[in-house]
Write a structure and sequence with these properties.
The protein is an alpha+beta fold. The protein has 4 helices and 6 strands; from the N terminus they run H-E-E-E-H-E-E-E-H-H. The chain has helices spanning about 1-15, 40-50, 100, 120-130; strands spanning about 20, 30-35, 35-40, 50-55, 60, 75. It has a two-stranded antiparallel ribbon with strand order 1-6. A hairpin with a 5-residue loop joins strand 4 (about 50-55) and strand 5 (about 60). The mean pLDDT is about 90.
Length: about 160
């Protein structure tokens, strides 16, 4: 897990500089509360930090696109804030419906609106039926298949308004 290795490296660096740091991904307090729900959201942390807004598929659309993963560190180190370039949590989503058309599980429905557009239960059932069981160092699934995040206008950046 590249994100976990990078997070642990940065955590160690900040601690050596005298900062208090928590890396939620590997912290013992991190818990899965239900399938696809945890007590910490890397996407929401990235939104709060000014990195992007949410899309219909519930991914975070950033200047580099939606097809990415995030990690976060919580620290008392003084780090300059990233100014937010948006006002709404869904500002970058154009509701084009491309992610809905690409979803093999039909878990995304623009008619439900951007905030409720993706049904995680439908997505989760598809992933469970079509992939091997959770594996790896944390033995838990924390995301869907990702087909809704590739080949879409927001894949590699913020899409132009329609």
């Amino acid at each position: 897990m590249a994100i976990a290795a990078l997070g642990e490296y940065l955590k160690g660096f900040l601690e050596r500089e005298g900062a208090a740091v928590v890396f939620p991904t590997t912290d013992a307090r991190f818990k899965m509360l239900a399938p696809y729900a945890s007590n910490w959201s890397e996407r929401h942390a990235a939104y709060i930090c000014g990195l992007g807004t949410f899309g219909l598929s519930k991914g975070l659309i950033t200047e580099r696109g939606i097809a990415g993963r995030f990690g976060s560190l919580i620290t008392d180190a003084e780090i300059p804030a990233t100014p937010r370039k948006y006002e709404s949590p869904y500002e970058y989503c154009t509701m084009c419906g491309a992610c809905q058309r690409l979803c093999p599980a039909e878990a995304i429905d623009a008619a439900r609106g951007v905030a409720l557009g993706k049904d995680n239960d439908i997505c989760g059932a598809f992933v469970k039926a079509s992939t091997r069981p959770p594996h790896g160092p944390h033995a838990r699934v924390r995301y869907g298949c990702g087909k809704c995040q590739v080949g879409v206008p927001c894949e590699k950046g913020i899409p132009r308004p329609r």
